[in-house]
Amino acid sequence: EHRDTLDSGLNLASCLRSLGDAKALELFKNLLEGCQRALGQQNPVTLETAEQLAELLAESDELIAAWKLRRQLLEWYRAAYGEDDPMALSAMSK
Fold first, then answer.
1. Which of 5, 49, 62, 82 has its CA 20 to 30 A from that of 20?
2. Helix extents (H) in the chain
3. pTM of structure
4. Sequence-distant (≥ 6) Cβ neighbours of residue 90 within 8 angstroms
5. How far apart are CA 83 and CA 64, in angstroms?
């Protein structure tokens, strides 16, 4: 689980999502687990993966799962960037 491999996986999952491919959801979930293990929760690749997964969950009408992930993302952004950082504030607004 090298950072470059995870980043490439994120790019692939994003492309699959853009194409409407159902495989994107499972790939995002697997990538998030790998990112958390290898990079930590506050790494930008982990945060971007979680952000895109939350969006895809919401688009797929998995609203409770999306909400839970968004709440977790807010905590990760706060820990990574602080309460007043634009990224944390953006996460609060979603």
1. 5
2. 3-19, 23-39, 44-59, 63-81, 86-93
3. 0.86
4. 77
5. 24
